[in-house]
């Protein structure tokens, strides 16, 4: 069996208790997809290395070393056309107010600048898409199913509010037996105060 080349991405992972709560909700909600490795906000979407991994890790560390922990609020359920899957729709949690997640957007901009030239985007279309902090509830559904999932999430008052304390570099690849791997490297943010 062939080993596939790894791709990487950078995320804020949900705290474990919140991840369990949303995983359970997703398991009871038709059409909802939940990542095996946990709910997350993607800061830098999938990419391949253009330099040795050690340089990417060092650049990521530099990009976050002065950053402090911050609050994340995703309190609105949205649905829109999928940008890479024609005819399908996404359902996701995002911030209702444009200023709700300014620290998250600032961190993302710092990472994007810090990793420039060290990576090759797996999907340039996704990488160029405007950054909207969110947690996806589906990987793509036909519009009627997406609207049903959105309505259920709204009815259930689905939302997340938590303190981001770290970011995670995720490696996605395939082991020789075909099983996926998700190797996390965490970068702690500085405590407030």
Could you explain how this protein is built, in words?
It is a single chain. The strands form three sheets. Strands 6-2-1-9-10 form a five-stranded antiparallel sheet. The chain is globular, with a radius of gyration of 17 Å. The chain has helices spanning 16-27, 53-64, 102-115, 124-128, 143-155; strands spanning 7-13, 40-49, 70-74, 76-81, 89-94, 119-121, 134-136, 160-164, 166-174, 180-188. By secondary structure, it is of the alpha+beta class.
Concise overview:
With 193 residues, this protein is α+β, with helices and mostly antiparallel strands. It is built from 5 helices and 10 strands; from the N terminus they run E-H-E-H-E-E-E-H-E-H-E-H-E-E-E.
Question: Notable features of this structure?
Answer:
Cyclic Phosphodiesterase, Chain: A; 5-stranded antiparallel sheet; alpha+beta; 5 helices; 193 residues; 3-stranded antiparallel sheet
Number of domains: 1
The termini sit apart by 51 Å
Segments where pLDDT lies below 50 for 5+ residues? Answer: none
Query: Gyration radius, to the nearest Å?
Result: 17 Å
CATH top level is Alpha Beta
Which structural category fits the helices and strands? Answer: alpha+beta
The shape is: globular
Overall mean pLDDT score? 90
Largest sheet: 5 strands, antiparallel
CATH architecture: Alpha-Beta Complex
CATH superfamily: Cyclic phosphodiesterase
Tally the beta strands: 10
Helical percentage = 25-40%
Strand content: 25-35%
Figure out the total of helices. 5
CATH topology: Cyclic Phosphodiesterase, Chain: A
Reading side by side through the largest sheet, how are the strands ordered? 6-2-1-9-10
H/E series: EHEHEEEHEHEHEEE
